[in-house]
Batch of 2 targets.
Target 1
Amino acid sequence: MLELTLSKYLIKPIYSILLTLGAIIGVASLIIILSLFYNYYLSSEKVFMGIHPHIEINKEMSSQEGQKVINRIKHHIADVINIQPALYVKVRTEISEVNRTKAFCIEQDDLMRCHTKSDGTGKLHTRYGFSIKKKQLTEMIVKGICLENGKPVMDFQKLINGSTNIKRIEQYEDTNHNPLPPGFYLEQGLFNALSGYFLVHFKGLEKRKKQYWLNGLLDMGTKKGKCPLIVMSLPSAQYALDKKNRINTIEIRIKQPYKAEKISQHIKDTLNDNSFSVENWIQKEKASFTFLTIIKWMLFSIVFSISVVAAISIFSTLYLTVLENRKKIAILKALGMKDVSIYIIFLLKTLTIGLMGTGLGCFIGYCGSHGFIYLFKESLEKLGIENPQPHLSMYDICVVAVFTIGLFLLTAIVPAHNAVKIDPIEGLNQ
Amino acid sequence: MEQSIINISNLNRKYNLIEGKRLVSSQQVFENLNFSVKRGEFVAVVGPSGCGKSTLLNIIGNLDSVGNKNYVKIHQSQDNDKEIRIPEIEGDGLVIVNEQDIRKLKGSRKAQFINKNIGFIFQFHHLIPELTALQNIALPMQINGQPKRIAFQTAFSLLKEMDMERHANRKPEILSGGEKQRVAIARALINSPAILLADEPTGSLHPQFKKDIINLFIRLNLEKNITIVMVTHDVDSLYNSSKKLIISRLFSLTGAPVIL
């Protein structure tokens, strides 16, 4: 094709090489960032979707009333795989990390602060005292949960740093029937210890600090209402928070989480009672998804600016090329070359650069995202991205390719138009 | 009556010199110019510099338009700041080339007309330096949409005709002035145009090559019956050529008598 041959002669090879390099860098960085971000996005979505209940029904009610609601939902909604009552309460809490030491318990009313060992007859043999290492007073969300076949609705096992034996929160005595301190999980950031004895004092609800066993720390994605979360068994929470036989939430896990909105509507229709508020995870995590989308657009803007810089360099190079080649373009016009062919010369050149840049850029971007993940796997895992993998769909690649080539072609229009507008007489006299 | 291949009637051309939104002066180049060339004629257009020889050639060759162009805003008068639009170049008239009113040609049709009907030869040959002699010659034929193979075959036969085949793959920079001009002539001939327009084709050549080039034009005119309009101010070169019948007619743009 004549236009292709001429484009080769009109635009210096060094310009073409530099422009192609620019395109490659732009496309490759776009691919790498998209791939890594998508990784993070998927990982976050998995956390949001997997950890929190897919649907929550909120209403202050008795455990019996809650059970009735649960039975009704189980009967009507086939998609439910786990449904349990829970209690959420925001409370000022003092948590003290302690060392337990054998000690003589001084008075009867100090029992709450002592771990007692019973011989089964009710006679006390051993008592423990506690030396407080550090303590913290903060507003916390206390969550009491139930387990069904050892599994909570809130699937937070993957976030646990420490013992993942969740059943421990429902164990109140050991195999010898000795009483055990209630187990609980605490959101990381308050204390960095992995396990041990804690004294917990719910201010205004209990007179004294009570001994608890820290089963593990929760990693991320669990913060509710800007307060750290503390998870324990429902009976422990009901007892500690002085809400005996009361619940305020029914948590539901469903087979198809992405259908949560539809199923929550179905639940509303089934309950047919406006005093119940039904929320699904998609609604609740809207802010998080919006945040992720904003980050995605910010990253896209950064990479977009790389492409814009590449496009500007193509524009300026082509613009200069037209200025440098006024005479040659005038000769072509004097030989009878059509305006459309002159357009094609410049558009073909940018198309070639765009195609080469996109092709090589996609390949380098694909290899680069694999290499990046291989090199920084540990760091990414520390960021909470579980088993990072490059995620690139054909759709993403097509979007990048179309965007890049489209942008490049756009940049060629003005220089090509300038070339077409060259007056052959002026050009020949140059 | 033999039909004219070029027929110009009442051609006017005026250049307006504008400085800082003021019309400074005007220069009338053509005033009701009438000019015609018969098919197969060899016409030399002569005249002093600036009399409009090249402009006439550019208008015939469709590189320049007949009408007004390059409109600019100027103040209506020295006392009045009201702006009016006037053309830097004013012109009108009828120009018919190969039975086509060239004023009606626009865009692709204009380009096609130039490509098929006109062969341009310039003083400074205007070859594309990145292309070889063969590629330069083949260019108009490729622009016309002919396959590369046929264009190159035709180009090579033209080079052979000009005894230049050994230079086929050489780039213009290593050719002499005369050789470059031969390549330019071959390029102008490749689409077998109806008219060859030569704008001072010997102007930049060493005297030794001038005669060769003029003789080549004469040969093309006599053997191939190609209509040639040549702009020159070098009348002597025409007379010093060895052929008996050199020029059908000398046309003086200044209207001064031409001594044959």
Target 2
Amino acid sequence: MAAIPVLPKLVGERVKRREDPRLIQGRGTYVDDIKIAGMQHLAFKRSDVAHGRIRAIDTRAAEAMEGVEAVFTGAQIAEMLAPMPIGTPFPSPPHRAVATDMVRYAGEPVAVVVASNRYTARDAADAIVVDIDPLPAVVDPELAMTGKPTVIHPDFPNNLAVALVPSGTGVSADGKVDDSAIEKAFAAAEVVVSQRMINQRLIPNAMEPRGVVAHFEPGKGSMTIWSSTQNPHILRTMIAAMIGLGQDQIRAIAPEVGGGFGAKINIYAEEYVAAAVSKRLGVAVKWIEDRSEAFVATTHGRDVIGYVELAARRDGKVLGLKLRLIADIGAYNMLLTAAIPTLTMMMANATYDIPAIRTTLTEVFTNKTPTDAYRGAGRPEASYFVERAMDMLARELGLDPAEVRRRNFIAPDKFPYATQMGAVYDSGDYGKALDLALKASNWNALVAQRDAARKEGRLVGLGLAMYVEVCGSGPSSSMSTGGWEHSQVTVERDGRISATTGASPHGQGNETTFAQMLADQFSVPIEHITIHHGDTAIVKQGIGTFGSRSQAVGGTALHLAGGKVKTKMTKFAAALLEAHVEDIVFENGRIGVKGSPASAKSFADVAGYAYVPVPLPEGLEPGLSEEAFFEPANFTYPFGCHISMLEIDRDTGEPKLLKLVAVDDAGNLINPLIVEGQIHGGLAQGIGQAMVEEAVYSDTGQLLTGSFMDYALPRATDFPRFELHSSVTPTPVNPLGAKGVGEAGTLGSTPCIVNAAVDALAQFGVTHMDLMLRPEKLWRIIHGGHA
Amino acid sequence: MAHVSITVNGKVRKADVEPRLLLVHFLREHLLLTGVHVGCDTSQCGACTVLVDGRSAKACTIFAVQADGSEVTTIEGLAKDGQLHPLQEGFWEEHGLQCGFCTPGMIMSAVNLLNDTPKPTEQQIREGISGNFCRCTGYQHIVNAIQHAAGKG
């Protein structure tokens, strides 16, 4: 007999992605690539004023155009769609998919056209005449909190979406507040650093704009809806509720999804409208977002002001932290909007053992595009505020920034660690990550380089930041959707394996990592495995991919489902081989009895027997298909340390990132190649926030950075080669020990770069500068102006 | 309507089109070459990059009528006889893509880069693809992918 090829272990290896062959040949199917016979195209007419009352909409010219099937105003859409639901327990004003009487941000839909092709649809939308009585707009959240110059929603005085929520030390679950501990900490302080910090508004800008195809089939009474979404099962749930169908009557498909970054979690007006219009007209409809629309119609991220106060002793020991947050959430609450800043509160403890913390959160409506999740979603804000403050403390005390942090770390023997903010950190070793980062970056040599450069008159700075984030979302108690994930694993009759996952990827490579896991679990070639996702007709249940959860939660569900199938297959093999189940081994595509390899059957033979079980072993049903829901008992808490070196051009103020070293600890890694890619992408977005990206509004509520001409998306020339290192501290929360890595890169990079910039310009007396590092701002500091 | 005759991936394609029809929509809607993507409307992102007469061009910036008589190569025309182009191999080997949406345009820009500069430095690569946005990768693995392909050339 020929030797059986030995199958390599794949978990932990840099396996090339199985998604790529179709994508590198242009054969992926994104939403805009879908065509259905008779399909009509939608175009939205949007408000070009930020706040106003709709006086009249004249659709006659649009309706008269050849190829126009229908035009619906907000009032007509309101007959088909109730106000849009949100996914958080906070009070929320009514939000119509298409505005009926008031518009509250520039870009809000006011009418929708249905036409035979997209050019005609756009022409018709342009032909709609909307008469809006403008009202004063407000774009500054701290002004909006005064109720001046306008109140955007009548039931929310002073534009307060969330008036004030306290959290932290002395705040009980029922909201009772005891200030004694936090006041004592500040009374005992030898030094207090205070700073108002802006974490600016960002625009997610997945390269594929959003899109939807809704296809209601009147005879069947059911709908298929394709959408560029991170969570097709949530889409199904929401669409069903909104258009009056059962969840069994809707098939939601996320085909190839060209990036999400949190902005494709929300279920949007355009998705509801497409579904409702398709149902009303009985035809398929498609809507594809233009980039110019995406800038105003897809949710934005961040936009939080933090008032940070850090109380400490002169030896650097932090005694207390106060963090007052004001979140500018834009004009409406979207699916998760109100919850995102609560994650900033949750992570205010950062990597430190801080005896007393008080955070408060106020959320404010303004006449801007609504915010929601954007990569990191609340946690980068926390790490930014705390890591900037720690740096300010080090500078105030004349201490080494690494040393100040080290003196405050939560000790590695304290895990699981209950924070002041109600989180329970699963595992961690922050000193290890810091040490590795200092060593890998050759910190002392960098200090010497910096100092030598300064002697030449160059403005060079070094920055360091720690982070811990909350991932693997999460227990169902924390998520209105449920926090589990689902998988079904099937060993087919021919011995190949089909598996489903509710973690619907959009670039994360789950088809590869999940196949690696099953290949090892069953000892079969990875080529024999297919991972299905993104289709509610195939994937029975699911939540989706966000919050760095797909591996930690979705991967675990797959692992558990695979384990169930393997247990059953072991029983069939034992019957076939007349052996005890405990002696059955899966090895190199064969299943045999321990110690007698010659007797082994091929994997396919055992699979075939399970489907034609003659005789049927006692106590077994035929077939090899099992499913699992995994409900995590806790979140996971990845952590790390990022270090950067920055030079600022004295003449132009332009900052240049010279070096970025990242140490990330995401627990056990399934595919280090894919993990690196995730970290690179996160770093790019974190560096983008620090250095080039900012959504800017005029006082009248016009988005001034409304295209790629004006909003700087980082280009390849903006980055040095990133240097990555990892430590591995597995989580006990799931059997894989994997924590999640999708957002990590955004957490340390932003503060470490601003810390470097302050270091570079400290000689000009600057102790803080707000995001982002606009050259003009830096030039003014250098040349005697102000930040 | 205007008549155009454009050689796309080696085949002559004739059609009557609206004069305002963009080349990218001609490719996507008329020829169903959906590997050509539309990522913006201001010619910044490069997702629609194709080769027109051998030079990279953003197909959203050209009317189909302007491409009349030209030879156009899209991502679908890059692999030959079932063999991936070295750049396609490079992107696969080096994990040069995540969501894949920018990838066709990125690869076509890189084809142009390597035609002009077969052995580019890292800085030349970064400049060569600076007309193409990628939001997923931070570009590092894309740089590696192009270096991989250049090493083979």
